[in-house]
Amino acid sequence: MHEQTLAIHAGYEKDAQGTMAVPIYQTTAYEFRDTEHAANLFELKELGNIYTRLMNPTTDVFEKRFAALEQGAGGVGTASGMSAIFYAIANVAEAGDNIIVAKQVYGGTTTLTGHTIKRFGIETRYFDVNNPSELESLIDEKTKIILFESITNPSIDVADFDAIVAIANQHNIITCVDNTVATPIFCKPLTLGCDVVVHSASKYTTGQGLAIGGIVVEREGLVEKIKNNPRYAHFNEPDESYHGLIYSNLPLPLFTLRIRLALLRDLGAAPSPFNSWLYIQGLETLPLRMKQHANSALTIATYLENHPKVKKVNYPGLVSNANYTLAQKYFPKGQSGLLSFEVETLEEARAIADGTKIFKVVVNIGDSKSIITHPASTTHQQLSNQELIDAGIPAGLIRLSVGLEDPEDLIADLEKALG
Ligand SMILES: *Cc1c(COP(=O)(O)O)cnc(C)c1O
Fold first, then answer.
1. What are phi and psi of 42, to 5 degrees?
2. Per-residue confidence (pLDDT) for residue 45, from 0 to 100
3. Which atom of ligand 1 sits closest to the CA of residue 83?
């Protein structure tokens, strides 16, 4: 089926009432037929609803629909993008292990990997997403996952999937892509050989800045990489917390299932059914919206490129962009609605952000309403000077999340602010 049809129908037929719109199953728990049914569910002899921390019928539609758009085997929804990223890491790494993360990632991912998980005994090694050959010297037998963003936020770099996947596969390491900015409409990392995709559903998924959420999706056949792979021993050995269950023996998408059974069970960052319902509404129009976001972003990037006050524009859809060729290869249908541009000084950047009216000063992206952000004083404020340079964020960098307003009005707004 085509993408726009999946966006509207995947994961839902009808419920017992024949309800046309997906209902919100606003419930904490579910009644079992009898104690035998309950025991079967807990033992995984039968699959079904137990408790909303683990699964919920509304969330189930969101997970199935998102996984269908990513062409994945299955997904698990989470309470935020950050919990999705943390669970993807915690699903494979423990104290004494290391993970490899691109330097150019979302600010929260930098602090999570550089500080918080360090306190759990997990080491993070960083590579330059523009130079994947650095990976070779960072990998050892304790490396559990390679994490990067398809289109990076906010430096707007483009990952060379083929180069990264080739090295990861040579060493049998799981690759995990944060696909929040590109969305499955412009990029399907699982079809490019990546193993796991994570998203912040807080952005383009509702498309209106309505709810915080996340999702982890895995590819078909990931079991082959995990089965008998010494890197992933805990998928191949009995899980004592689950009566000796061996995940790699299950005929199910095992990566996301383990997140559900072990990490949602014990750590509990589950999405609320109401939020899952909002994501479902958003997904219905995601393909249509993304086309408009990308068209408007390209128009604005072209305008900015010709403005005398602008030193540099980062938008991979511009022919002048260093990532243009990679972007045409991996995102031929569009390069999303995020761009950044550089002016001379921090003060000038702030004055421009304060001077716009339609573009709001907000730390978010992927909204129908256009957003202007000064990363050095907001999203990336907790980064040291060196971390800022590594993440490709000069003091005069401004990020735009181009919304769905008329692009002519947006350009007029920027024109006034740029002076
Ligand atoms: C926003 C964002 C996150 C974090 O997601 P939350 O839903 O805010 O927790 C992670 N990665 C990227 C690329 C993001 O833009």
1. -65, -30
2. 86
3. 9
